[in-house]
Design goal:
2 strands; mainly alpha
Length: 234
């Protein structure tokens, strides 16, 4: 679990961190996950992977966090497709729970960057569903940062099956296997909202390995809105 709390008020989502937010007791029991619907299992799992991805290139990352991030991504990328095919697989559910814990540890230990800023803007201002938004945005946010994070891209590609050395391809393949929705428009966002979303995303930006530029950010959000596959040309 993490010491982070997200709060939405007046159309804006903000986060704060405080050790008092940490729960006193957390129960990790795979039996409690067995009835989680397949679609929610998939998007929640990719949401967890997003924490690991940003931990790989966080400003305050470290070798231990990178190991946790890779292992968490590897566990989830292997188990989530199996859950889609066989939701009652206890071994797959156990591996997913293990991966989610690792990725949550990453989130609670290092800072997040562009991906989370985009998702906070979309969720807080356009009422987009949390896990589904993270799932849609992640490969596009990664494609934006790719030119500035070669080591993280290499580490992520090693953790994603069928990436062929390309982390963006690996994420696209994973999302296809999971049969998740790929477009924000499928959740009610209008194309006319893209401009406003870009303006919100570039205001008070989080630290990011690549400088934030409105033009590419707007195109990133448009692709996420349209449901296009991510490609490394932003």
């Amino acid at each position: 679990m993490t010491p982070i709390l997200g709060e939405t008020a007046e159309g804006q989502k903000k986060t704060r961190s405080d050790s008092k937010i940490l729960p006193g007791t957390v129960i990790y029991d795979v039996d409690l996950t067995m009835t989680l619907p397949v679609a929610l299992s998939a998007t929640s799992g990719v949401n967890a992977i997003a924490h690991a991805v940003e931990a790989l290139y966080a400003r305050n990352t470290n070798p231990i966090m990178c190991l946790l991030a890779q292992e968490g991504t590897r566990a989830l990328a292997a188990s989530l497709p199996e859950i889609i095919v066989n939701p009652s697989s206890q071994s797959a559910r156990s591996s997913a729970l293990y991966g989610a814990w690792l990725c949550g540890t990453c989130l609670g230990s290092v800072g997040m960057a562009l991906h989370h800023k985009l998702c906070h803007a979309l969720g807080g201002s356009f009422n987009m569903p949390h896990a589904e938004t993270h799932t849609i945005v992640l490969p596009h946010a990664l494609s934006y940062n790719a030119p500035k994070i070669p080591q993280a891209m290499k580490q992520l590609a090693e953790a994603l099956p069928e990436s062929n050395g390309d982390a963006i391809r690996g994420l696209n393949v994973l999302l296809t296997k999971l049969k998740v929705k790929r477009g924000l428009k499928e959740f009610g966002m209008q194309e006319s909202d893209v401009e406003k979303a870009a303006d919100i995303a570039i205001s008070n930006p989080y630290w990011n390995p690549r400088e934030i530029e409105k033009g590419p950010i707007k195109e990133l959000i448009r692709r996420a809105w349209a449901g296009e596959e991510a490609r490394a040309d932003l």
